[in-house]
Amino acid sequence: AEALFSLTYKVGVKLHVDSAQPSVFAVTGGNATMPCRFWYEPELSSPRDVRVKWSWLPTAAGGQETDVLVTIGSRSKTFGDFRLQDFPGDAALVMTKLLLNDTGRYHCEVVDGLEDKSTSVYLELQVSKLFLHPGVVFPYQACEEQGSILATFTQLFQSWKEGLNWCNAGWLADGTVQYPITQPRVPCGGHGLAPGVRSYGRRHLHLHRYDVFCFSSSLRGKVYYLKPSHKMNLTEAQQACQEDGAEVAKVGQLYAAWKLTGLDSCDAGWLADGSVRYPITRPRRNCGPSEPGVRSFGFPPPQHKHGVYCYKAGDE
């Protein structure tokens, strides 16, 4: 009878796993805790060694799920800057020094004997800047070259709610092509369509060419307009920034400085990708449209003469 009672108790115990929240929002360079807790019903009189595995599925379309941490009792193996919370029943994943490409779905699996329960949490970087990179076939590489990543739909949608109004269709991380419209007009679907984020659906990553929405959540260093004694071609602009202990700013860095630090200049300058742009936070006469934004003169021939925006690395 005693053995039968013990067996019945073990079979009747149920393992539960819960994340408490579906998403966690953080910023680049910061920390994040991905919640995951587990408990038993009925409650156990003493703790048991369980196997906890965290895996990660990147946001980008086509990404492969990989393990980031595995523990069994007091033994653990990590694949990066990860650790578990050290509390009974708490399997939260603690992440430090977050990078742009750390976004995605994090899956917490708890195994106790034959019991196997799991839950998932999504890591999102808070929207600080979103910009459009001109037409590319390989969007991932284009954003990385600007110190950023492909934007997710959530990030694009948040920017649309904040007033983003672009008629250019661009790639998103899920492989779709979309664009945000707050003011319907003829060239952008017509006046008959309501404001919103318009979608072309999924497109072939290698056969189709569109712009790309890139995203970054922080700026480390300073972007500034180098006031030259004379206008410069692209080669001279690169040399001028180097002589000033800096480098020619990237598109993403200029957008970050405009959005995060309020950089405002009516002077057009070279950027690292060969484009010429200038940031406006206080619209005024002779400085482009009436809305704030980063104005672009496109990609003029490199021998043309302009100013330059430089970037000097430093603390965030």
Automatic annotation (TrEMBL):
Domain Ig-like: 29-128
Gene Ontology molecular functions: hyaluronic acid binding
Gene Ontology CC, one term: perineuronal net
Keywords, ordered alphabetically: Disulfide bond, Extracellular matrix, Hyaluronic acid, Immunoglobulin domain, Repeat, Secreted
Annotated SUPFAM superfamilies: C-type lectin-like (SSF56436), Immunoglobulin (SSF48726)
InterPro entries cross-referenced by the UniProt entry: C-type_lectin-like/link_sf, CTDL_fold, Hyaluronan_bind_Proteoglycan, Ig-like_dom, Ig-like_dom_sf, Ig-like_fold, Ig_sub, Ig_V-set
Location(s), subcellular: Secreted, Extracellular space, Extracellular matrix
Keyword Repeat: yes
Record flagged with keyword Metal-binding: no
Ranges for domain Link: 119-216, 221-312
Disulfide-bonded cysteines: 167-188, 241-310, 266-287
GO biological process annotation, one example: skeletal system development
CDD domains linked to this entry: Link_domain_HAPLN_module_2
Record family assignment: Belongs to the HAPLN family.
PANTHER family on file: AGGRECAN/VERSICAN PROTEOGLYCAN, HYALURONAN AND PROTEOGLYCAN LINK PROTEIN 3
Name of the molecule in the record: Hyaluronan and proteoglycan link protein 3
Organism: Sander lucioperca
Gene assigned in the entry: LOC116043627
